[in-house]
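Data availability (excerpt). The following record was deposited with the supplementary files.
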Amino acid sequence: MRVLAFALLCLVAIPQDQKEPVRTADITVRGLKTTDFPRIKKLAENVYSYEQIDPTKRVVTVNNLIVVTTDGVLIAESQGTVENVNRLVADVATLTPQPIKYVVIGSEHGDHVGGIEAFPKTVAFFASASSAPKLKRPAEAVTEQRKVLTMGGTEIDILNLGRAHTGGDLEVYLPREKILFMSEVFVNRVFPSMANGFPTEWIAALRKAEAMDASWYIPAHGFVDSAAVLREEERNYRLAIERVMSEAKRLHDSGVPVDQALERADFGPYAQWTRRENNAAGALQRVYMELEGKLPAAPASAQSIQGRWKLVAAEDLRADGTTARYPWGRHPVGSIVVEGTACYVQIMSSDTPSFSSATPPPVEQMKATLLSSYIAYSGTCAIDEAAGKVTLKVDAAWRPDYVGTEQIRFFRFDNGRLLFGPAPHSIRSGEDRLSRRLTLERVQ
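Predicted structure:
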């Protein structure tokens, strides 16, 4: 019997670091103390998460993403106090001698930006257009839905997945590593804090993030658990917001006054989440406001590929960004039209010679000239605005072999212009691999 008992004990005595973590955001529930923080976790080569104690919530972490490159360091999010930022800067110095070059502000709230002035004066900041004017340090306003930075060969995308927790939310994505830092769009096991949020748009932002199929979803608050746990908890967080919204709608439609909604709400499994007593009333009130049309409308300046675009340039670029050639001449003519799920692309050269009716060229020569100087195709398209990707199923084209194919194009915005083209380095020119870039302006 003793041998059997000892054997059973050995079977259940799993090392602490292999146990399933307690699903909570409260450090004390996990048996941790404030002195156990800050913590650094390696997510990929030269990519780290950083967990520090939130100065306002005490038992919850506030998190950063640290990206180290040969061209400097980018940090996603600040910290809430000067002391915490000073510690963050010092801890980064233990990882690399490279200087901190950029900080991306995902949330304008004090627990994320309260210590922003402590970063070195050489640091440049990025923030949303609505958040930038509110910061203590100058910041470049990110107006596009995807701004691409390349640092030492590492692509870093600053994303705007839509209004969520603050209305000025930004995220940071590393496409090679498939790591998405979500700022306060995703919080791990903290009851949704929605008092300043945009509930329906928040759900849409979370679904966009899920469609990206990232390997890591990093929250602004709560533990940076394993990739598998965070993937599950990101979806749980969306379900929690959906539960708040459905309860608020049920109570609102039943005529329950907003000041009585909390005592009648049933949050199901989410009622036990950390800080429910702090956040639930404000969350219900915000949904009431949305149902009654009292939330601010989305800014008209939000950039989208939807609409009509006029071609102003077409270039094939070398790897160093210089122009190798102009495939339709220096003054091409064309347009791209995106209306809902319908897409149309047309490009032609303005340098095509005129064919005289008096002395017409051979038919085959005319066909070859026109085929090489003109393209057009259309069809239904699936658009991922956050990833800057269009997947077009061609149902009509200038070339019959295009019909029935699936054409994938990528896009981003630069100072109001649309940059559009196939995958980088996909155009062959002898031994070279070129990147085709179309530059277009919106037709008002």
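Summary of structural features: The chain has a mean pLDDT of 90.
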